């Protein structure tokens, strides 16, 4: 790797880490300490619904690679929260499709808006980071991470 590529690579790694860190904290601030499997099931369900393909429980198991008992528990939570409802498939009455409710669609819009804000803010912040300074002073990095967490929690709680 030539020397002009190294700072760009460090910049991209730092940016990806900041985005990942902020997304995790946004999810925890909004939804509590839910298992990552639940987040995977929810995102898969939303993704498929958004494309006009509401999944069945079996399809979610296949798409996520999670056991049926786990997927069933996660979907049940979504149903209780009013984010998803079961609907009988008009083409096969034995199948139950998992369809996003109006409340679920509003939540999806909030997630997209929040992710857009995270990406925009990260873009601005990573440009300000002195990656070499973080490597020399881990305390500076920890302080920045703490501030980021606090900002994310406050922003998620407001909406």
C-alpha-based Rg, rounded: 19 Å
Q: Would you identify the regions where 5 or more consecutive residues have pLDDT less than 50?
A: none
Which sheet architecture does the biggest sheet show?
Answer: 2 strands, antiparallel
Average pLDDT, rounded to a whole number, is 76
Q: What's the name of the CATH homologous superfamily?
A: Winged helix-like DNA-binding domain superfamily/Winged helix DNA-binding domain
Please bin the fraction of helical residues.
over 70%
Distance between the termini: 44 Å
For the secondary structure, the number of strands is 2
Mind telling me which CATH architecture this is? Orthogonal Bundle
Question: Which descriptors apply to this entry?
Answer:
two-stranded antiparallel ribbon, 159 residues
